Amino acid sequence: MPALVLNNISKRYGDVQALDGINLQIQDGEFCVIVGPSGSGKTTLLNIIAGFTKPDDGEVTVDGKPYNQLSPRDRNIGMVFQDIGLFSHLTVRKNISFGLEIKKSSKKDIDKRVEEIADRLKIRKLLDKKVRLLSGGEAQRVAIGRTLITNPSFFLFDEPLGNLDANLRVEMLTEIKRLHLHLKKTFIYVTHDQEQALSAASRVMIMKDGKALQKGPPREIYNNPIGKFVAEFFGVPSMNLIDGTIIPEEDGSLFQGAGLNVKVKGYSQSKKAEVTLGVRPTDVVVGNQITEDGFGTINSLELLGDKNQIYLTLEQEKSIIAVTSPEVRPELEERVKIKLKENRIFLFDRDQGGRLYP
Amino acid sequence: MSERIKRKGKIPVNIIMLLPTNIIILFLIIIPTILVIWFSLVNFQPTFGINFWQSKFVFLDNYFKILMDDEFVKAVIRTVYISLICLGVEFTIGLLIASILTGNIHGKKILYPLLIIPIMIPPIVIGNNFWLIFSANGPVNQIISIILNTEFKASWFSHPKYAIIPIILSEIWHWYPLTFLILFSGLVNISTSEIRAAKILGATEWQLSWRIKFPKLKGIITIALVIRMMEALKVFDVVHLLTHGGPGTRTQTISFYLFKYGFKYSRISYVSAGAWIILFISLLGFSLALRSVLVERK
Amino acid sequence: MSDSMMKYNVRKGLAHIFLYAVTASLLFPLFWMLMTSFKSPNEWVTYPPTWIPTEPTISNYRFIFFGSAGRFARTYSSAVIPYLNTAFVAVTSTLVAIVIGVLGSYSLSRFKTGGSLTLLSIIMPRMFPPMAMIIPLMIFFQLIRAIDTYWGLIIVYIGFTLPYSVLMLKGFMDGVPKEFTEAAMLDGLSEWQILYKIWLPIIKNGLMTTTLFLLILNWTEYTFALTLSSRGVETITLTLAKLFSNEAGTYYGPQSALGILAAIPTIIFGIFIHKHLAYGFTFGALKR
Ligand SMILES: Nc1ncnc2c1ncn2[C@@H]1O[C@H](COP(=O)(O)OP(=O)(O)OP(=O)(O)O)[C@@H](O)[C@H]1O
Ligand SMILES: [Mg+2]
């Protein structure tokens, strides 16, 4: 039985449809990541799960129990807020112990738990500091520590916008993943940065404008995006998207755009159409020994050791990225042949964004 | 910065800017204050026909005399207790309205300005207002009659025990918006995440108030208390208008006492000594209150 | 509907009823005054009192505007002059106190001139019983012939609202972000220009709040007017007190009319600034 079920959750704020019929089932012990651009409704969804916001429609069920009427206090959830929200008038120690102090646990128990948690999160030295003096990363650790103390059955993390730098984000995520392995509880993690999601999640939900565009294991979403938005949003570096025309041929179709002529064997249709072709940077082959789909000029080159990241300009000033093995070392400004891996091509409807092929 | 303001041979701009303030404060406040010190130490009374700088120096005599004056001591005690009642009631009302209004209330935008109207009304108009509703044939007597179901017709303002009630009520009415305003803004300013964090950790409404809201509001509550207390110690207009301190001296407050002895009886030295005693008492109280805030902030 | 949902709704309903009831009863005195101001003399003291005037009349307002002639035991002159007096004295002293206060608070907020000692010397006077200050002021004013004059009263009002002006404005100014000032300094603006072109636009709301707040204080002032200028400058509060004294004590109608007229400007000012008032009152201790 799934631990958490969201059934058709909708929420409206004035003219904004913050959530629009969200369905999600999360298994016990899962690490589910929710990604989406700013304003897509991620925080709103967490607030509904936690019980701070009442949905206009739909149901939250936990372990088969309807949760809608339960106050946040009774939900046994741990939550780390987007703006962290540490109790600014208390010390780190008092912040962490808050959950037990209000339950009137004995001082000895509280101290023991606090120290345990402080050790796990490596914040022992900070315990007697005022929280105002903490750095962004430290504050987040304390916020995690604060939720741990009551032993909640599942955890909601809303990643802070912008106040952690990239390195710190990775570090925090590693931390949270370790925590997940250790606690074996259900985690729901909201992030803006899908690279993280890819590496951490057992399941990902991609949101846009209050809708869940796609759900599934990260690999599956990566290999099989349902539309242009998901394709571009998910994956680092982003999928290359090239606008062009699809022309019917005898065995399949021919894509023409930005100076490329790409044969798409598996796709056949009766008339010409405006489409967008998508291809992952790792599926762009650069070299001289190949039968080319077209040409590009090397714009810049990043040698990353295990791979090279090549920025190319096609005709009509269209830029794309190719990720190749380290042996491929073209010169700057060199004109090179380009080939797109045949069975790794996506075609999307130019206007609607829906996937046409495969 | 210091280079900019301390150019040679020129008065620094920050001093120039503060100069008008200092001049006004000096002439209207510092010099009179020094005069009050002098008055309090001599025996000066305009009716004696002796200039104040030639008056006889009596050192602390006035202080001793006024402290022995039963009427003065009673006025001080009365003012303090009026202030305490006012503060207590105002905080209760203010907090109650503020916490309800922070919720999801329809018509919030209209209620809020309506609720703070009393603080904008001239005290003398408030006096007048309470004079009307507490008059013998006024609505207060009418409502009490209806509730008690017997004819009730008190003459509030000349009643030895009741006379203080309209005065206290008018003070409360005038000033509750201050505490309400400050508490409301304070409550609204507490970060939503902190409140939510506490809730999800299992805090009850009571614990939320006691452990999160109150400690966070402590600073501004103290400030509100001090400001309010400062004003409460000055209650004059309403007393002067409604009861003239009467019947007898039953509603006499410090300010009214000072007014009576200063202006009616011209006992300038006496009144000056009284003023210093009051300033001393209030400073003591405020410094205790304010210290807790200042210590907190560091 | 579920049980807890019902409980929630009941609680919410009760909160609404309670709040509306409290608001209504808190506004009752004003309502009463407004109603009385439209009552004719025979309704002023009838018992039981009428809540709504049975024959509404504007004669009370006429009394206030034109004075009384014959109908009452004593002749009262029109309240128009006191009204104008009040407006003149309050507006003038407020404007001056604001200009001086802006300069002073800028100096305090930007340069921390004199440190907390200066601040203390500014706030201290507010704690001193004004009644005690009036006596030396009277002596001083007699010396400089300022008793019972417009300018004397104006100066006193300036002096006694200045602490509020400086402290409130300083509270607002302390909230001006450093970056603005630094950028302006790099552009080579003088301190006067920084104040005028950068800070004042930023604290616009605060400036308005402080101005209207001082205006309310000055408009409603009674003690100084009573003791220092009652024979030369009659302000509206004095007129009202006069209407009150002795045999006039039961002129409920005109009193109410004048009370309403005296309160209207301050209520309007107050409504304008109600959003920022709390911030001003706590002198910036409250964050926005
Ligand atoms: N209390 C509210 N009142 C009105 N509109 C709201 C409220 N809360 C959220 N919204 C709106 O709902 C939409 C979704 O907001 P939400 O905070 O859930 O986005 P998000 O995905 O968390 O964005 P971000 O990544 O920036 O945190 C936004 O358009 C937002 O403006
Ligand atoms: Mg968010």
Your description of this structure?
The complex is a heterotrimer of chains A (358), B (298) and C (288). Chain A has helices at residues 42-50, 92-101, 107-120, 136-148, 166-183, 194-200, 218-223, 228-233; strands at 4-13, 16-26, 31-35, 57-62, 65-66, 77-80, 154-158, 186-191, 203-208, 211-216, 240-249, 252-257, 260-264, 273-279, 284-287, 294-303, 308-313, 319-324, 335-340, 346-349, 355-357. By secondary structure, chain A is α+β, with helices and mostly antiparallel strands. In chain A, the strands form four sheets. Chain A has a six-stranded mixed β-sheet, with helices on both faces. In chain A, strands 13-12-11-14-20-21 form a six-stranded antiparallel β-sheet. In chain A, strand 1 and strand 2 (16-26) form a beta hairpin. Chain A is elongated, with a radius of gyration of 24 Å. Chain B has 298 residues and is an all-alpha fold. Chain B folds into two domains: 1-59, no CATH class; 65-297, MetI-like (MetI-like fold, Orthogonal Bundle). Chain B is built from 13 helices and two strands. A two-stranded antiparallel ribbon of chain B has the order 1-2. Chain B is globular, with a radius of gyration of 24 Å. Chain C has one domain: MetI-like fold (Orthogonal Bundle). Chain A binds chain B through residues 50, 52, 71-73, 75, 77-79, 81-89, 98-99, 101-103, 143, 146-147, 149-150, and chain B through 191-194, 196-204, 207, 211-212, 215-216. Residues 42-43, 82, 158 of chain A line the site of magnesium ion (MG).
Topology:
The complex is a heterotrimer of chains A (358), B (298) and C (288).
Chain A (H helix, E strand, L loop, with lengths): L3 E10 L2 E11 L4 E5 L6 H9 L6 E6 L2 E2 L10 E4 L11 H10 L5 H14 L15 H13 L5 E5 L7 H18 L2 E6 L2 H7 L2 E6 L2 E6 L1 H6 L4 H6 L6 E10 L2 E6 L2 E5 L8 E7 L4 E4 L6 E10 L4 E6 L5 E6 L10 E6 L5 E4 L5 E3 L1
Parallel strand pairs in A: 3-8, 3-9, 6-7, 7-8
Antiparallel strand pairs in A: 1-2, 1-4, 4-5, 9-10, 11-12, 11-14, 12-13, 14-20, 15-19, 16-17, 16-19, 17-18, 20-21
Helix pairs in contact in A: 2-3, 2-4
Chain B lengths: L1 H4 L7 H29 E2 L12 E2 L3 H8 L1 H32 L6 H8 L7 H11 L5 H10 L15 H26 L2 H9 L4 H28 L4 H6 L11 H11 L3 H30 L1
Antiparallel strand pairs in B: 1-2
Helix pairs in contact in B: 2-13, 3-13, 4-8, 4-10, 6-8, 8-10, 9-10, 10-13, 12-13
Chain C lengths: L2 H34 L4 H4 L14 H8 L13 H32 L3 H9 L6 H14 L6 H24 L4 H9 L4 H12 L1 H17 L2 H6 L7 H9 L7 H22 L3 H5 L7
Helix pairs in contact in C: 1-13, 3-13, 4-7, 4-10, 7-10, 8-9, 10-13, 12-13
The structure holds adenosine-5'-triphosphate and magnesium ion.
The site of adenosine-5'-triphosphate (ATP) has 14 residues of chain A, from strand 2 and helix 1.
